[in-house]
């Protein structure tokens, strides 16, 4: 498997490029609108052809570039079938593999951050979206989030994977790139160790996090598979499709 991890700094989002060397087909997991040209260039530089984009859930902190990439290269849009979005080409379902050339992607329904959130397994690694972060987890206070459900998704499903499974999250805000299931089970301060479901629910209820500054634009934009609203305030225009400076080029 050809693999690249790409970082978008405005929303601190990781996009993952997976390619099949035999077929030349590629998929992008959680692509971000401002970085669509960079991502497509990365695909082209590797001699691959983008055939699919996958969004793990309806994001609240950025807008997907799925529709832009479909317009440019004809890639299919894969999003959770449970969201019933009209722009869906491939509905992601629990346990129903996604095939990109010789790649086998294994969707796992991991609700709690949002009700229709999915993680994506691929061989020795899992792309956990916002459900499981490095030493953390996603919020549960909007978009039908539920702390009790997230606890069960992470502890019951993701932590059931082999300990050596590499964990690649959708975000990191401290420059970290990768973890493992064993590491998160042992030391994740929110969900690891002997954390009980009751204490996790209490912890999440007391976070008192600020209202997400982009959610009112991101959610409707992502329900259309990547449409930037025309009334975006000047302070949020970095979320538009222009290239943003990125450590990955």
Q: What is the CATH architecture descriptor? A: 4-Layer Sandwich
Summed up, the domain count is 1
Strand-residue proportion: 25-35%
Largest sheet: 6 strands, mixed
DSSP E strands, number? 14
Class by alpha and beta content: alpha/beta
Domain Metallo-beta-lactamase: 12-171
Keywords: Hydrolase, Metal-binding
InterPro entries: Metallo-B-lactamas (IPR001279), Mito_Persulfide_Diox (IPR051682), POD-like_MBL-fold (IPR044528), RibonucZ/Hydroxyglut_hydro (IPR036866)
GO molecular function: hydrolase activity; metal ion binding; sulfur dioxygenase activity
Topology (SSEs and partners):
Blueprint (H helix, E strand, L loop, with lengths): L1 E7 L4 E7 L5 E5 L6 H10 L3 E6 L11 H8 L2 E5 L9 E3 L5 E3 L2 E7 L8 E5 L2 E5 L2 E2 L2 E2 L9 H10 L9 E4 L9 E2 H7 L9 H9 L9 H9 L26
Parallel strand pairs: 3-4, 4-5, 5-6, 10-13
Antiparallel strand pairs: 1-2, 2-3, 7-8, 8-9, 9-10, 11-12, 13-14
Pfam family, one: Lactamase_B
GO molecular function: hydrolase activity; metal ion binding; sulfur dioxygenase activity
Keywords: Hydrolase, Metal-binding
Quick summary of this structure?
With 249 residues, this protein is of the alpha/beta class. 21% of the residues lie in helices and 25% in strands.
